[in-house]
Amino acid sequence: MEDMIVQQSNHTKEVQVEKRHDYIVSDEVLAQLSFINFVILTGSISSLGVVFNIINIIVFIQLGFKDPLNISLLGLAIADTGSLLPMIWISICNNPLLAQQYSHLNFQGIQHLTAGWPHVCFSRISSLLTAFITLERHLCVALPLKIKSIITPRRRINIVVSIFIISTVGVIPTYFGAGLGPTLNWATNMTTIGLVYYTNGQNIENAAIMFSTFTQLLAFVVVTISTLGLVQTLQQKSKWRQTTSSSSNNTSISNRDQKTVKLVVIISVIFIASYLPISMSLLGMLSYGEFTMVGMYRNLLLAFATVFFCLESFNASVNIFVYLIMSSKYRNKFMSIFNRGKLLKQ
User: Fold this and answer.
1) pLDDT for residue 23 is more than 70
2) DSSP letter string over 175-220?
3) Is the keyword Nucleotide-binding assigned to this protein (predicted)?
4) How many angstroms separate the CA atoms of 220 and 307, rounded?
């Protein structure tokens, strides 16, 4: 969502926006929402989320990769950490006290380049990894005898690494089209340091925005369809096993499979709930020109964006609790590391 918050350098557009959007959501209300959602909620959630995901990274490394799923979950923890760190900087940039003290700096433009796009990059990596994890788990349940030959550990590593590379390459061009420099604030007639677009810079950024939007919507669709298919296939397999097998060993395997599937389903459901409003807004921006940064509903879009940041931060922070509740291996390793640290202190 934040990749759509583009700083406009054209004076005519700024004046037009100023005249058209005031009666939708006032600047005062937007400032209050930004402070509550960006500075307080998003900053707090993101700070805790970074700690939680660092713990996830340590635990998954300690667990090893005998279970190939740990490779994907490790990648997800790294991506979530990368998406949350810029959110902390965004919450700092939106603090009105900072803007008052450093009035010569345009923090909206600064955060756009130094935090907005890095967050977009890792957020899209996280979305694509969630899509891959959900799809892979669906195939595990639907094609249990073929999945090991379809997604080998080496292929899994290649897919995870490719997601990181492709998403990063999609963002890098924006830094060739924009930078930080002196800009004239038309409202105050003061020169500040902020976002400056180079020649064709906005066109380059618009292309990056379209790529980011496409990957986000693609990931959302894949996660939604795979989750629905996963639940349906699991129910069918469970009924079939109950009627055809009474072996305790088979029951044990089935229970382990179900726990893993439930863990993935919970992660996917949290993702769907967090990104549904964002995906709907992206579709709205693509289909309705007034619901953009230069349209009638500019302030309304920005007000929604403050909520979307909170949802993204929440989604990137809560997986640790899912792992602790649903995975006995994760929980045991977590407790082992925690107790070890406690003993060292003693």
Assistant:
1) no
2) HHHEEEEEEEETTTTEEEEEEEE-TTHHHHHHHHHHHHHHHHHHHH
3) no
4) 18
pLDDT tens digits for range 208-225: 888 988 998 999 999 999
Closest by CA to 128, choosing from 289, 275, 338, is: 275
For the record, the structure tokens of 170 come out as 């999609």
Strand partners, 113: none
Structure confidence by residue, pLDDT tens digits, 118-127: 999 999 999 9
Domains assigned to the chain: 2-336 (1.20.1070.10)
Kindly list the distances between the CA atom of residue 242 and the CA atoms of 49, 232, 260, 265, 322, in Å, as whole numbers in the listed order. Answer: 40, 16, 19, 22, 27
> Can you say whether residue 67 is alpha, beta or left, with left for phi > 0 and alpha for psi between -120 and 50 degrees?
beta
Q: Which residue has the tokens 């395997």?
A: 253
Phi, psi of 99, rounded to the nearest 5 degrees:
-65, -35
The predicted-structure confidence for 330-342, as pLDDT tens digits, reads as follows 999 999 988 754 4
Check whether 312 has a pLDDT greater than 70.
Answer: yes
CA distance 156 to 103: 49
Tell me the H-state helices in the chain: 11-21, 27-33, 43-63, 69-93, 96-101, 107-111, 117-142, 147-150, 153-171, 174-177, 201-244, 248-287, 298-317, 319-326, 328-345
pTM for this entry: 0.84
d(CA 58, CA 170) in angstroms, rounded, equals: 29
